[in-house]
Specification:
This protein has 16 helices and twelve strands. With 394 residues, the chain is α/β, with parallel strands linked by helices. It folds into two domains: 3-259, Aspartate Aminotransferase, domain 2 (3-Layer(aba) Sandwich); 261-393, Alpha-Beta Complex (Aspartate Aminotransferase, domain 1), CATH 3.90.1150.10. β5, α9 and β6 (204-208) form a beta-alpha-beta unit.
Length: 394
């Protein structure tokens, strides 16, 4: 079945089959095109492709069939016209900003963001005259109040890392549109299997493919999805010039990841709700942050906006850093690692790892306290994971 016919098929059918380009060898599984450049029939052919009069691959900094297949498949799953794959999630964010903003522009971001994203905004964008204001993710009043005449972009992660706060994407998109600003959603925690921001009015979706898109902790990569003008022309133009390109090997891995994405996201979510319920009852746990819990402040919004609550849980233990570290060190099964979205369950202490480079004041403001832990619930037997936690908490 060709792409045209596949376009109307279900999410899982597209996740498995969309954008495969079979070669003359009639291979069933997709090959990896390990080539840095492409040949032309003649000098005139080369000139035509370079000049844009004829379509074709030139050089793998711009395009590579394995990377293109991943881009097309992910664009289809997010419901976007265009996708640009990048070397990492951070370079997806950087490329978006370099292409769409300029010196003098103002950016509003939610306070609870991935640590490196905050640092990118505060240290590097600032150097080039782009100023960032931070607001509480879930407060429409704060978003509204932060808008200035030169505001050009709103940037959110929902659910946020590591406290799983949620914002109303549809309402935020109305605000963005009213002020002619671009709404960017980092969809890392949900993936298109659980949430499709473009359908809710967002302009751009960002991914760290490193996380759930791969799903097995094998490679670093990223992606930007949106319309043809902003992504296919402007962001692509930055990428082909500046070069934060995804490698074909990694694109091949990520395309395999997409094939099982919705199955995995369902399984992660099913285990996570069991673990969140169990943690909520534990006497040594003071707070549990998980959008699937009725006690979550935006439970109703999460139910409306996402098809499941995802695999990330934040929780606080009674005590300070020492108490949190003791829990981490008492675990035998879970991995102590900063990565998330893996089939292997991982635990991290955000204040001293993922968020250590932002200031103590910024951490306090975003609720990243010293007794906070984050678990990315994997696909091991849930009873074994709970046993592991039970022993560590005791
Ligand atoms: C990991 C992560 C990023 C950065 O992605 P890399 O692939 O590590 O560069 C951005 N946003 C969120 C929410 C993340 O979890």
């Amino acid at each position: 079945m060709d792409n045209k016919d596949l376009e109307t098929k279900g999410f899982d059918t597209r996740a498995v089959r969309y954008a495969q380009q079979r070669t003359g060898e009639r291979e069933h599984s997709e090959p990896v095109f390990t080539t840095s450049s492409y040949v032309f029939d003649s000098a005139a052919h080369a000139a035509a492709v370079f000049g844009g009069e004829q379509k074709g691959n030139i050089y793998s900094r711009f395009s590579n069939p394995t990377v293109t297949a991943f881009e097309k498949r992910l664009a289809s799953l997010e419901g976007g016209e265009s996708c640009v794959a990048t070397s990492s999630g951070m370079s997806a964010i950087l490329s978006t900003i370099m292409a769409l903003l300029q010196s003098g522009d103002h950016l509003i971001a939610s306070r609870s963001l991935f640590g490196s994203t905050i640092r990118l905004f505060d240290v590097y964008l600032k150097k080039f005259g782009i100023e960032t204001s931070y607001v509480t993710l879930s407060s429409m009043e704060e978003w509204q109040a932060a808008v200035r005449p030169n505001t050009r972009m709103l940037f959110v992660e929902t659910p946020s890392n590591p406290l799983t706060e949620i914002c109303d994407i549809a309402r935020l998109s109305v605000l963005a549109q009213r002020h002619n600003a671009i709404l960017v959603v980092d969809n890392c925690f949900c993936t298109p299997a659980l949430q499709r921001p473009l359908q809710l009015g967002a302009n751009i979706v960002i991914h760290s493919a490193t996380k759930y898109l791969d799903g097995q902790g094998r490679a670093v990569g990223g992606a930007v999805i949106g319309n043809q003008e902003q992504v296919g022309n402007q962001i692509f133009s930055f990428l082909r010039t500046a070069g934060p390109t995804m490698s074909p090997f990694n694109a091949w891995i990520f395309s395999r990841g997409l094939e099982t994405l919705s199955l995995r996201m369902k399984a992660h979510s099913e285990s996570a709700i069991q673990m969140a319920d169990w943690l909520s009852e534990h006497p040594r746990v003071t707070h549990v942050y998980y959008p699937g819990l009725k006690t979550h402040p935006q439970y109703a919004l999460a139910k409306k906006q996402q098809s499941a609550a995802g695999g990330i849980i934040g929780f606080k233990v009674d005590g300070e850093q020492e108490a949190a570290w003791k829990v981490v060190d008492g675990l035998k099964l879970m991995s102590i690692t900063a990565n998330l979205g893996d089939v292997k369950t991982t635990i991290t202490h955000p204040a001293t790892t993922t968020h250590h480079r932002i200031t103590a004041e910024q951490r306090a403001c975003s609720g990243i306290t010293d007794n906070l832990l984050r678990i990315s619930v994997g696909l091991e037997t849930i009873d074994d994971l709970i046993d592991d936690l039970d022993r560590a908490l005791a």
